[in-house]
Design brief:
about 475 residues; alpha+beta; Aminopeptidase; Phosphoribosyl-aminoimidazole Synthetase, Chain A, domain 2; 60s Ribosomal Protein L30, Chain: A; 3 domains; 7-stranded mixed β-sheet; 14 helices; about 30% helix; elongated; ThiL-like; acyltransferase activity, transferring groups other than amino-acyl groups; Putative N-acetyltransferase (TIGR04045 family)
């Protein structure tokens, strides 16, 4: 593509945006931020060379480095109304090998007359990193631009040196985990105060007094039942069986309560429920079905164990283990939110996974819920009266999932346990990836030794079990 054609393409894109949004107010900046192609990357690098090599003398001969050769590196550029590149910034994973959710930005450059472009590029880079699943986003900035980044919301970490020049390490605050927890779990404490047996408050299931029975109950989101009834039926079994598994209980039966607009819709929900019950080898004992009402589905599961494993049995110093089934992929329509590893599994594999906690008997266990891996770890730590640190690079993760998505999604089978006990869970992967500590909340530990805060305090407000 010639430079002229590239510039005309940029003009057309800008014109398309203007046609959709209308003319900007008088005095508004007229530029477009986009991901660069090959020609635009070269134009961006020329701007960098002019600024960092010729004008500032930070580098001798060239400012290009290994990150420019990394195919994962993304370049965002700004074009003016003529299509000319007037600024750019690069970003990408900070470590070699698999992307663990630690990204770095750098080499921000703009032309002298491009007011507002620098801030727009920085904001776009932050959004792009978060969209790629980053949970940590750093940049080393020159001391003269420190306050500029502060005004954009960046946090100052410490002084560093780049190419013999004083810089500052800064970090964009990513609150993805905290926002998920606030939306799904934070109101439970005041609401459920006084409910639940002592020692198992906030647990995945409840021991039935005077027996070896454990009961669990879960409802499926009505919007999910309406949107994907067969999958909702499958998940109603999945989540309840996983709850029993976290208690170390063997499932013995299910009861369902279904609301549906008509028989046809109810048939679709029950087909998924029946298929899952068959796959897990758990009988449906009965339930209740109501027609002529909005979609609703909840299932109660019963299991047996003489020694339930509590979710709050952890203590500071105990290692944290994640055991997860990494097979499968994102459920269609739920990319980044629901990982389906179970619907294609054989019964013997499913039974091996849900029997793992009961066989190993760890000190504490919780199955990963809608709060994701980090949020669920926060719940386990809270119930145990302590805090937790998660080693991000040690977390078992599917290759097709970003770290940000994996740590905040609902997986098909994933179990957090504490203690020295190893779990043998059939096809699932298992690894120690953290430890319980004193205090509260959850922190993420990175390969360079940095620790970032994912959760500042308890998840539910229910306190120790």
């Amino acid at each position: 593509m010639s430079t002229t054609v590239a510039q005309l393409t940029g003009v057309r894109r800008a014109a398309d945006v203007a046609a959709l949004l209308g003319d900007p107010p008088a005095g508004a900046p007229r530029f477009l931020i986009e991901e660069a192609d090959g020609r635009a990357v070269l134009a961006y690098r020329r701007l960098r060379h002019q600024a960092f090599v010729e004008d500032q003398g930070l580098f001798d001969g060239s400012d290009l480095d290994d990150r420019d050769e990394d195919p994962r590196t993304i370049v965002l550029i700004a074009r003016d109304s003529t299509g000319a590149v007037i600024g750019g910034v690069r970003l990408g994973p900070a470590t070699a090998g698999p992307d663990i959710g630690w990204w770095q930005g750098g080499r921000l450059v703009t032309t002298g007359s491009s007011a507002g472009v620098g801030a727009a590029l920085v904001r776009a880079a932050c959004a792009r990193a978060e969209a790629a699943g980053a949970l940590r986003f750093d940049a080393t900035v020159q001391t003269g631009t420190h306050r500029f980044f502060q005004r954009l919301g960046w946090e100052t970490i410490r002084p560093v040196e780049v190419a013999g020049s004083k810089h500052l390490l800064m970090r964009w605050p990513i609150d993805r985990v905290a926002r998920l927890v606030a939306a799904t779990k934070s109101e439970l404490g005041p609401l459920l105060s006084g409910l639940g047996p002592q020692g198992f408050v906030g647990d995945d299931g409840a021991p039935v007094p005077g027996s070896d029975l454990v009961a669990a109950c879960d409802a499926i989101l009505p919007s999910m039942v309406e949107r994907d009834p067969e999958w909702a039926g499958w998940c109603s079994v999945l989540v309840n069986v996983n709850d029993l598994a976290a208690m170390g209980a063997e499932p013995v039966g299910l009861l369902d309560a279904l609301g549906a607009r008509d028989r046809s819709f109810a048939t679709r929900v029950l087909s998924g429920l029946r298929r899952a019950a068959t796959a897990y080898g758990v009988p449906v004992l009965g339930g209740h079905t109501q027609f002529g009402v909005p979609a609703a589905l909840s299932v109660t599961a019963l299991g047996r164990t003489a020694h339930p494993v509590p979710g709050g049995g952890g203590r500071p110093g105990q290692p944290v283990r994640l055991t997860a089934d990494l097979a499968g992929g994102w459920r269609s329509g739920y990319a980044g939110r629901q990982w389906d590893s179970t619907s294609g599994r054989r019964t013997e594999d499913l039974r091996a996974m849900i029997g793992a906690v009961g066989n190993a008997r760890p000190e504490a266990a919780k199955d990963v819920s809608m709060a994701g891996v980090v949020g669920t770890l926060g719940m386990l730590a809270e119930a145990s009266g302590c805090a937790a640190t998660l080693d991000v690079a040690a977390v078992p993760k599917p290759g097709d999932a970003s770290m940000g998505d994996w740590l905040t999604c609902f997986p098909g089978f994933a179990m957090l346990t504490t203690g020295r006990q190893e779990l043998s869970a059939g096809p699932a992967d298992s690894a120690v990836c953290g430890e319980l500590t004193t205090g509260q909340g959850v922190r993420l530990r990175w390969p360079d030794g940095e620790i970032t805060e994912a959760l500042a305090a308890g998840v539910t407000g229910m306190g120790a079990a």
